[in-house]
Amino acid sequence: MTNPAAFPDRIPHVTETETDTDAHEGGSAKKARATRRRTLFGLGALSGVLAGAAALAVAELVSAAVRPQAGPVVAVGGAAVDRTPAAVKDWAIRNFGTGDKLVLESGILATLALFFITLGILALRFRRGGSAGVLVCGAVGAAAAVGRPDSTGFPDALPSVAGAVAGAVLLYVLTGRLTTAPARTGGTATAGSPGRDRRGFVTAAGAAAVASASAGVLGRYLNAAAGGDAVASRRSVRLPAPGSPAGPVPRGAGLRIPGVSPFTTPNSAFYRVDTALVVPRIDATSWRLRIHGKGVTRPVTLSYDDLLRRELVERDITLTCVSNEVGGPYVGNARWTGVRLAGLLAECGVRPPSRGGPADQLVARSVDGMTLGSPVEEVMDGRDALLAVGMNGEPLPFAHGFPVRMVVPGLYGYVSACKWIQDIELTSFAAHDPYWVKRGWARRAPVKTQSRIDTPRPFARPKAGTVMVAGVAWAQHRGIDKVEVRIDDGPWQQARLAAEDTRDTWRQWSFPWQAVKGTHTLTVRATDRTGRPQTGQRARTLPDGASGRHSVVVTVE
Fold this sequence. Notes:
Layout: H1 20-23, H2 27-66, H3 72-83, H4 86-96, H5 100-125, H6 127-146, H7 158-179, H8 198-226, H9 228-236, E1 288-293, E2 300-303, H10 304-309, E3 313-320, E4 331-340, H11 341-347, E5 361-366, E6 371-375, H12 376-379, E7 386-391, E8 394-395, E9 405-407, E10 421-427, E11 450-455, E12 465-474, E13 480-487, E14 492-494, E15 496-497, E16 507-515, E17 518-528, E18 551-556
Parallel strand pairs: 1-10
Antiparallel strand pairs: 1-2, 3-4, 4-7, 5-6, 5-10, 7-8, 7-9, 11-12, 12-16, 13-14, 13-17, 15-16, 17-18
């Protein structure tokens, strides 16, 4: 029989009978051997998990010296988002909402755990093969990091490479403790048993766990601290008083009916839908915005202070995400402060197509590589298109685009609301397809007229009598003219509209329903200022926004 000590790279084959004596072993001996085999495989799996944890911890620590976005989980997650079909992304947003990123990262970690468990068991037979698998995993992470749109190049590969090397070495060491015996008299293992240094394994595994945890915690701390300059710059911002302030919200614009969304959405409750797994933290003092491209006769690069020195305007504007299903939550109203984008473009020599301008698309680029395409005609048609610096009276929150983002009323966010903007290029729809257009979404996307029932909630059980049915309706840049409610298959009945702020904001509405016992379906529809009622034809969000009428089923007791 081959001497296991002669081949330290392999574990002795424990799954087959090796001698004639083995064939006649008693039941207890076979059970003991099976138990040893299961224990060995369990320790191999543990070795793989510890190697994976070490790889991620070292990568996290090294990413603090590069940038948080270069970490392998973030890089692979971003690559996965980029390659996911639009319908799947839409499903994720619909089902997980703003938690879709957490779900994605959890899925990546679970997949990595299974992968490293497999490598750990494999390494019991082929130590070098297991370690090679870890290096391959690191190569995938490095390729994903370097291939991101916002990559800084080779340095972004360093976290994955360093983590993979650490994980490969650790896996080789741990499985070596399981497959070779400690030195004894004559340097040989105890006869008749595979060589295993259990004490050495426990010591090495414990040390690896402590070191990995320490490296991971330190890396997280350093990555958080790396955004300190950005946090300080935001804290130091004092937004100048707007030269064109928004008027007070009209009395009666908010109905104060329990369950209805407030007229102004607090920053903490405002929806967030984007592809950034790590929210960019940008130092406003170093931020720059470049405006260039077709028809730009005077290209310009602006600093944050340059924008603050210009006249600021303040406007209430409702934003809507194209991934918002009928009756969905991805719509919110805020008071935005910023610089008129049309005026800035005009100073750069830009003319809309209706006035002979050669560019019909404005491509906005974010610091994380995202590109959004807006129609130049709409941006310059007189609506309050802004380069926003403030939201509800304070500098933009990081999650909503600090230091600067775009806001264009009447267009879905994916063609107008670029967060963390750093570049504006004037081009044409024929010459360039932005990020979402490449993934099947429409080039042009005006917001569709929609309405929503906020109260009563679906499957509510109100008491018979007067039940207040209420909610919100929106048709940005056209305005809401009328809202109607239908009970079951009855006639449409006009609801009471709250006071209008501007045509760029949503409107609340209410309808006192004389409810009778039984199960009922409540349906709402809105009509915009053009006289066009909200369609009843259902359409999913892809490619240019959902349509249909929101309804809820309630049981009156």
